[in-house]
Amino acid sequence: MSLKNDAFPSSQAFELINSAFQSNDAERQDAIKNAQAIFAFALKNSAGATESWHIDLKEKGVVDKGEAPSGKKADVTLQLSDTDFGKLVSGTAKAQQLFMSGKLKLKGNMAKALKLDPILKKAQTKSKL
C-alpha cells in the first residue's frame, strides 16, 4: 500500500522513512528502542483537507496511514500543514520554530515528541521536497 497521497505532496516523506526502516533492520530496532512511541501526523493541505499518518516506533517500526495502528493510541500527535511538514522533513524549518510560531501543534507526550527529530532526518537525507 502506498503511503503517498498526491493531494499531500509532502506525504512522500512517509514513504522514505518507511523505506529506510524496512531496508535496515538494525536501524529500525534502534529507532524502536530509542523512541518507544507511536507518532501521529495530522496534515492539512492547501484545499483544507486533512489526512493522517503514523510512525509506530513502539513495536513494529513501520509507517502507515491513520492516526495509530489498529487498537492502539498515538503517544504524541503533530498537527501542521502539508507545506510546513514538507519544510520540516526537508530541513528548511525546525520543529521548535514551527511550534513557537503556532504552525505546529502537539498533543500528548511532549518528551516523546523530542525523540522524533532523528526519525525525520531519515527523510531529509533522501527527500527532494
3D architecture notes:
The chain is built from 6 helices and 5 strands, in the order H-H-E-E-E-E-H-H-E-H-H. The protein is of the alpha+beta class and 129 residues long. A 5-stranded mixed sheet has the order 3-2-1-4-5. Helix 1 crosses helix 6. The protein is globular.
Keywords:
single chain; 129 residues; alpha+beta; 5-stranded mixed β-sheet; 40% helix; globular
Order of helices and strands: HHEEEEHHEHH
How much helical structure, as a percent, in the residues?
40-55%
Cα(first) to Cα(last) distance is: 21 Å
- Unreliable residue runs: none
Strand content is 15-25%
Major β-sheet annotation: 5 strands, mixed
In what order do the strands lie side by side in the largest sheet? 3-2-1-4-5
Cα-based radius of gyration, to the nearest Å: 13 Å
How many beta-strand segments? 5
In short:
The chain is α+β, with helices and mostly antiparallel strands.
Topology:
Elements: H1 12-23, H2 25-35, E1 37-44, E2 50-57, E3 62-65, E4 76-81, H3 82-90, H4 95-100, E5 105-108, H5 110-113, H6 117-126
Helix pairs in contact: 1-6
